[in-house]
Amino acid sequence: MNGARALLSTLVGAGVEVCFANPGTSEMHFVAALDEVPAMRGVLCLFEGVATGAADGYARVAGRPATTLLHLGPGLGNGLANLHNARRARTPVVNVVGDHATYHTRYDAPLESDIASIARSVSGWYRSAARADDVAGDAADAVAAAMGPPGCVATLVLPADSSWSDSATGPCPPRPVRRPAGVPADTVDEVAKALRSGERSALLLGGSALRAPALGAASRVCVATGASLLGETFPANLERGAGIPSVDRLGYFSEMAQAQLEGVRHLVLVDAKAPVSFFAYPGKASDLVPPGCTVHTLARSGDDAPAALEALADAVGAPADGAAPAPASRPQRPSGALSPESLAAAIGATLPEGAIVADEGNTAGLFVTGATAGAPRHDWMTLTGGAIGLGLPMATGAAVAAPERPVLCLQADGSAMYTLQALWTQARQGLNVTTVVLANRSYAILNIELHRVGADAGGPQARRLLDLSDPDLSFCDLARGMGVPARRAENAEELVAALQSGFAEPGPSLVEVPLA
Ligand SMILES: Cc1ncc(C[n+]2csc(CCOP(=O)(O)OP(=O)(O)O)c2C)c(N)n1
Ligand SMILES: [Mg+2]
Asked: Strand 201-205 and strand 228-231: pairing?
């Protein structure tokens, strides 16, 4: 068997069954082998940033990695921003990057580049499969590394001659799955003592602590001790809605986060980092831990955070049924003018049970989290690394992972334009994604940041660099041009109708929401 087939059959054996691909000449044997290993589903993406963002969205939902197929250094580089977001989300991703044949490298052909340097900034594991007979073992190692815990981006470079050589053996059986590390009883006791001190305390949850069982245990702790229940600003996949205890996510602006943390004397980190300001601002703090506050780490990333929270709940004497789930409640269906508020109400009124929300709504999406707090239970995925252009690809990957669930993509207009090609993949694959484009025709957040950083604001040149009109983008035309049915909502009633039909009908759809 050749290296490509050994690689694919090893990946499939380890549970990696989807490949988000944008191939080139050096990947032709991998492409050809897809028909010999039909359990691997190849999904063509028309830009590498779509492939990498889709792989991230897929694994956030499936809990196991997809693979990408990328073309040498430039293809990997094109996918880098969304690999950065995946790294921040601790998503398991297996990156397969095709390379020139090993003997061809020394000729310095045009596509030759330093793949290792490009990969390093995002990859927790990196290897070049320089020998065909090692490819299967390399692939098994890559999957195990990607799975962690914690998850990471594992980049396997596949030279063309390793791929086509018939000297490969395989498949290689999957490596044993590593379990999350248990948290020592001493750590639990120390945190329990701090929470019982009577001083103001807060739990800050992130990563694996944001799924329902962990949230239930954390809520028991908070109800029993009076501690606040906080969540990281940009979670990878937060479970929420009616019946699940809700967390108060730390605000993006440091003043908001500081207000939430004011007076806290004990901050307990549970698979979360100590809070810092997203950017530096002249004269403002970077470190958001309040003065006089002690930071306790209950669980680090890769630890068994849900079990640690259960143990903590027992240690503080919380009753087993002592959690405070969010009550069911939905806003009224809005009518009249479109605004961030009526948009939020429309989503809150229609979001179906089991929905997956890919949130890159940015400023205009601000009120949607509040309006959906009591909606039927759903998953909420965000822009973990701040590198925009994730929403549409992440929604695409999520819909591949869970074809039976409705996916809502809340997509701000400026960020949409980075990876709009994801719509074509949604159409080709018939994916159940309802995209709502928040068309404020602006890089609105940057207009805010311009003032916040103290830059002298307001000249016409500066304004034009943050403005998306002239010409106006027609997201309906763009979507239809890629095979996705689209309409423009002129008022809140039309938006509600578009959402209802988008959720009910199979396949993708898009609704453009003009916002002043
Ligand atoms: C990869 C990347 N490039 C550029 C930026 C800088 N940036 C942050 S927000 C933003 C504009 C966002 O505009 P939009 O998506 O329309 O959201 P809005 O601010 O209008 O709500 C830009 C360009 C970034 N965060 N990531
Ligand atoms: Mg915008």
From this structure: parallel
